Amino acid sequence: MTRKVLVTGGAGFLGSHLCDALLARGDDVLCVDNFFTGQRRNIAHLMGHERFEFLRHDITFPLYVEVDEIYNLACPASPVHYQFDPVQTTKTSVIGAINMLGLAKRTKAKILQASTSEVYGDPEIHPQVESYWGRVNPIGRRSCYDEGKRCAETLFFDYRRQHNTRIKVARIFNTYGPRMHPNDGRVVSNFIVQALAGAPITLYGEGRQTRSFCYVDDLIAALIALMDSGEDVTGPLNLGNPTEFTIADLAAQVLTLTGSTSQITYAPLPSDDPRQRKPDITLARQLLDWAPTTGLEAGLGRTIGYFRGVVGV
Ligand code: NAD
Ligand code: UDP
Ligand code: UDP
Question: Is the pLDDT of residue 143 over 80?
Answer without folding.
Answer: yes
